[in-house]
Design brief:
By secondary structure, the protein is an alpha/beta fold. The protein contains eleven helices and eight strands. The chain folds into two domains: 141 residues, 3-Layer(aba) Sandwich (Rossmann fold), CATH 3.40.50; 125 residues, no CATH class. The strands form three sheets. It has a four-stranded parallel β-sheet with strand order 6-7-5-8, with helices on one face. A two-stranded parallel ribbon has the order 1-2. It has a two-stranded parallel sheet with strand order 3-4. Helix 2 links the parallel strand 1 and strand 2. Helix 1 packs across helix 7 and helix 4 crosses helix 5.
């Protein structure tokens, strides 16, 4: 139904790794599917939006779905709807024109559309009534239906950095670890980085480091599921020390190693380490 949450649904499905097409004429569905299969990079997950904006093309939908079945291509139909009252309210708030409006009453256009979509609704695998759903709640429903795992395509980027060069601008969570023992003051380790075993051992054997990492990991394990439920697909965790050479590097690698045990997709980057390696 127009106004039932199509745009948000497209955005959510794109975040879950779907190739989304809005308002493709149904007659082109089988042709696009064939191209997707034959492409060098095969598209495994495609979501196509179809609605009454397609006009006379919309009536080709059932024939196209039958062709998919004949080609043994699996598909699901997700039908979005909302009550008449809610749809009227949404159109008035957005001041957008209903696709069936011809200068008539908005409520009549909504009821006409509902009648036109009756058969499609009857064939739907999943029906979501968005009347009382917040955007977050709709995202949660979509993730529960279409995510391939409990974390979906959620990924965590962990960046070590030095405050001398500034905090990464895309950070979601910033942790300052300048309170940990600093290897810089040891002449042997001064030119090393947090990727060297001597530095790792020095930082991690400190009781302060052990106590901190335990507490910080518990905090992240608590927070991450809520970020996923909120519909977030990427979390940027930045860990900083003075120069981004020793402590932050050790902690970033350690946190990443521990979070991977819970099945999360982790990418680690040491932003400022390369500068110190050039100086060696």
């Amino acid at each position: 139904m127009s106004g039932a949450g199509k745009t948000q649904t497209i955005n959510c499905l794109e975040d879950l790794g779907y190739y989304c097409i809005d308002n493709l004429p149904p007659s082109l569905l089988i042709k696009f599917t064939e191209l997707s299969i034959q492409a060098e990079t095969r598209l495994e997950k495609v979501a196509m939006v179809t609605d009454v904006r397609g006009g006379e093309f919309f009536h080709d939908l059932f024939r196209s779905l039958k062709e998919l079945e004949e080609h043994k291509i699996s598909y699901e139909i997700l039908f979005l709807e909302a009550s008449d009252e809610v749809l009227v309210s949404r159109f008035k708030e957005s001041r957008r024109r209903h696709p069936l409006a011809q200068g008539g009453v908005l409520l009549d256009s909504i009821r006409t559309e509902r009648k036109m979509l009756e058969e499609l609704r009857g064939r739907a695998n999943i029906i979501i009534d968005t009347s009382s759903l917040t955007p977050r709640e709709l995202n949660e429903k979509l993730i529960s239906y279409f995510s391939e795992s409990k974390t979906g395509d959620f990924s965590i980027n962990i960046v070590s950095f030095g405050y001398k060069a500034g905090i990464p601008v895309d950070s979601d969570i910033v942790m300052d670890v300048r309170f940990l023992p600093n290897p810089f003051y040891d002449p042997v380790m001064r030119t090393m980085t947090g990727e060297d075993k001597e530095v790792i051992d020095f930082v991690m054997r400190s009781p302060i480091s052990k106590s901190f990492t335990r507490r910080y990991l518990n905090l992240l394990k608590f927070l991450i599921p809520y970020y996923i439920a909120e519909g977030k697909t990427n979390l940027a965790i930045s860990i900083g020390c003075t120069g981004g050479q020793h402590r932050s590097v050790v902690l970033a690698d350690y946190i990443a190693q521990q979070l991977r045990k819970y099945g999360y997709n982790i990418v680690v980057r040491h932003r400022d380490v390369a500068r110190y390696k050039k100086q060696q």
